[in-house]
Amino acid sequence: MLAYIQYPSWIHPEIVPWLPIRWYGLMYLVAFVITYLLFTWQLRERKEKPQQDLVLDMFFWAIIGLLIGARAFAVTIYDPTGYYLHHPLQIILPVAVVDGRLRLTGIAGMSYHGGLVGAVIALAIFMRVKKISILDWGDMLVAGIPLGYTFGRLGNFINGELYGRITKVSWGMVFPAADGFPSTMPWVRDFAAAVGMPVNGAALVNLPRHPSQLYEAFFEGLVLWLIIWFIVRKRKPYKGFVIAWYMIGYGVFRFFIEYAREPDKGIGFPITLAPVSNPGQFSWFNFSTGQILNVLLIAGAVIAMAAFRARARQPVPQDAGPRPSPRKLRKKVK
Question: What is the C-alpha separation between 73 and 118, in angstroms, rounded?
Fold first, then answer.
């Protein structure tokens, strides 16, 4: 009896096979549009004019910061090979020389945490220049981000990338682009037999994996959005409250989903408290780079929440009114 699912053969990364337009890019566009619509909806809910030009400018700079930050983290923290150090143009160019021919490869590799840092910096600068409340507008912005994020992870699934670790669960999926394991290894043959996968003398065996992109789309996207939109947002006691809870919620969900995600190549588990002999083994005490970053994200959110609460409790300075001119002061003295 088979205990796994084949990746659907009818799913293709390209929307139209002969055009370089991919579902992944379209999904990110949908994510930005959803976040924009939910943000402007909140402005109207507060009976404020959407200020369309200002909001569009804010989203433009947020997207620029997000892309720069996401790419910067991807080519530094998540690339221990030093490839981009020797090929710096590949950081920004969507083409590469493959087998002696120039091919359209797209700009692959984005980091969520880098995107978050880049977007925060860009938004902070923009709002400071435009004299907008960073915490107030930030609360409205993050309230819609998770629902948009859902579509971004669906784009990863359609691309057949960011798949999870090998698993024996019945919904484990065989991703065509996943790395295979040598069939000569005893643990590989035992693993394949346990899920009902025939080896048939193949040199490499593509074992079923967690569809971790779908886990993220559901928990870090849809579930987190429902919590923030219908619970956290409605009980906001001070500015910055929604921002902090978004960071905590994402960090917690992502931390546990990282147990199902495949670690980035060359990085593995920076913290290994229980060494394992092969990928078929699992331990709760080995932590990936993503988990380390999420612990830092949660810690930062707790500190930020305390700072936002303290800021909200500070007394509002009373307006003393215009200061009298020296001439009026002299008259009062007389």
Answer: 10
Instruction: Look up residue 14 and give its DSSP letter.
Output: B
Q: What is the mean pLDDT of the chain?
A: 87
Distance, in Å, from the CA atom of 276 to the CA atom of 259, rounded to the nearest integer, reads 14
C-alpha distance from residue 153 to each of 83, 148, 215, 302, 326 (Å):
26, 9, 9, 26, 65
Q: What is the pLDDT of residues 145-163, one digit of tens each?
A: 999 999 999 999 998 988 9
Amino acid (1-letter code) at residue 209: R
Query: What's the mean pLDDT in 203-232?
Result: 97
C-alpha dihedral sign at 124, 237, 221, 54: negative
Beta-carbon count within 10 A of 214 CB: 17
Cβ atoms of residues 243 and 135 within 8 Å: yes
Cβ 14 vs Cβ 20: under 8 Å: yes
Structure tokens at 120: 């925060």
Q: What is the pTM of this model?
A: 0.85
HSE-up of residue 197 (Cα within 13 Å, Cβ side): 28
Average pLDDT over residues 217-240: 97
pLDDT at 332 over 80: no
Residue 194 neighbours by CB under 8 Å, 6+ apart: 3, 168
